[in-house]
Design a protein that fits this description.
The protein is α/β, with parallel strands linked by helices and about 240 residues long. The protein has one domain (about 1-240): Rossmann fold, CATH 3.40.50. The chain has eleven helices and eight strands. The strands form two sheets. Strands 3-1-2-4-7-8 form a six-stranded mixed β-sheet, with helices on both faces. Strands 5-6 form a two-stranded antiparallel sheet.
Length: about 240
């Protein structure tokens, strides 16, 4: 998650949409007063900044996993605490209405049937998690699905100014940087992409039941972006949020 005062944007990070690569590209360009949350690959570097209060509790909370298990991250004791997949509703509370209303708010989304397959692969192969079969994972919901509408919706209202489609990333991200005045050089770092560099046809993972479960679970994303079961024709880079 990034709040950039230098370029006046708020980036909400969703799952399996090149969010880590974007943070790697944008983080070094952010100003000293911007907010950049840490992730595994940049923790301990100078890129994360201003995501916690400078007092003792804030510094200790940021460095201690044990403390983060004991104190809720939305606790008023912490003050301003920003984290990687923080919901937009919470960001609005922390930055205030003036910044929220005047900055460009965006995130990326992805065809949910493809996203669920990618997320399942990341958990099982990338993190070595012991998950059940794909069908059980989807239908019984014993483990969390990557339901990202909760990050950028408030009930039925999308809070973003722009939701960009992951499948048109190569077009939409450079265009976004140009609009915001970000000096993007066209080189995108590859984070968390080592699991499979080959295109995967997600449709082969589903049967009628699992396909229907995903359609129901991701209904807000599907309505907003117009996603369908078949791979989309890459001609619509974004969906503009409507109040």
């Amino acid at each position: 998650m990034i709040v950039s005062h230098r370029y006046k944007f708020i980036f909400i990070k969703t799952h399996k949409t090149a969010g880590s690569s974007m943070e790697t590209a944008l983080g070094p360009l952010c100003g000293p007063d911007d907010i950049v949350t840490p992730m595994e690959s940049n923790a301990g570097t100078s890129i994360p900044r201003n995501f916690h209060e400078p007092h003792l509790l804030g510094r200790t909370y940021a460095s201690s996993r044990l403390l983060r298990k004991c104190i809720d991250r939305h606790s008023p004791l912490l003050g301003n605490w920003f984290y990687e997949h923080i919901p937009a509703v919470r960001v609005r509370e922390l930055v205030g209405e003036d910044i929220w209303n005047s900055y460009h708010k965006f995130c990326y989304e992805r065809n949910p049937w493809a996203k669920v397959v990618s997320y399942y692969h990341w958990k099982t192969l990338g993190q070595g998690r012991q998950l059940p079969t794909f069908k059980t994972y989807v239908t019984e919901k014993t483990h969390r699905l990557p339901l990202d509408a909760r990050l950028y919706f408030d009930g039925g209202q999308c809070l973003m100014d722009e939701v960009l489609d992951f499948d048109t990333f190569h077009l939409s991200f450079p265009a976004l940087c140009k609009r915001l005045g970000i000096p993007y050089d066209g080189v995108m770092p590859r984070e968390k992409t080592h699991i499979s560099r080959q295109p995967v046809d997600y449709r082969g993972y589903y049967d009628d039941e699992t396909r229907a479960v995903v359609a129901d679970s991701f209904s807000r994303e599907i309505r907003l972006m117009g996603y369908d079961w078949e791979p989309a024709i890459q001609d619509a880079p974004s969906a503009l949020a409507r109040a």
